[in-house]
Structures are given as structure tokens and as C-alpha cells.
Amino acid sequence: MRMLGKIFTKVGAFIAALGLMLGGLVIFGLTIDMPASSMLVKIGIPVAVLLMLIGYLMPTIIAAKTGHPNLVIIILLNIFAGWTAIGWIVSMFWSVQTLGARRCDQCKEIVRKDALVCKHCGNNFGEATAA
Predict the structure, then answer these.
(1) Which long-range contacts (CB under 8 A, 24 or more apart) does 81-87 make?
(2) Tens of pLDDT along 59-98?
(3) Domain boundaries, the chain
């Protein structure tokens, strides 16, 4: 059951990112044919661009939030190669690899979130946190 939750977390990240980009495209498509003076256009287009940008940068956001050890490489890959669908997918897969993990306070290595002891330095985490 724990592995199933981890898979849904990773799949959920993909779905959220794709949903944001698709939602932005839908809003953009609905507002693009309206008169430029319309209030919906003045609000809709910036919201659409913001949603698409957040979806596009989701691999960078996930890597930064999880403290991914390869954060800089993921950022560069996401920004400069993400426009090729393959570059975005690779950066997304790479960024979610540390979901369900945490960084050891002593040695700063990535270990499982439910680990009681760091496998790198032997630091005792005490009670395991929920994954």
C-alpha cells in the first residue's frame, strides 16, 4: 500500500503539471478571439500564461521543494530543453525521483522518508515519519 501511495504521488505530479498547462491553453483559447477591450481578455490571458508557466516549470519546482541533489541540472534541462517534449518529460521524471525521500541532517544525503537510521552516516532519525 505504501508503494501505491508513492506511485500516485509521482503520477499526481505529472497530472498536475499537464493539467495546469492544458488549463492555461484552454483559457488562452477561449479568450484569444474576444475583443481586446474585454475584461475577460485582460484577466484571462495573464492567468493562462501563468498557469502554463507553472506547469512548464513544475519539474524545477518539485526538485527545489524536495531538495533534489541534482537541482541545478534539472533547472537547466527544464528551462533550456523543456520546450522539446522529451526534455520536459526527462526533467519531470528526474525531479520526482526523490519524492518519498528526505535529506539527512548530518551528512545531507538523500534517504528514504521512513528510514530510522541514515545508511550513509548512521544518524539516528528516531521515529520514522509517514511516507
Answers:
(1) 82/56
(2) 999 888 877 878 999 999 999 999 999 999 999 999 888 7
(3) 2-99
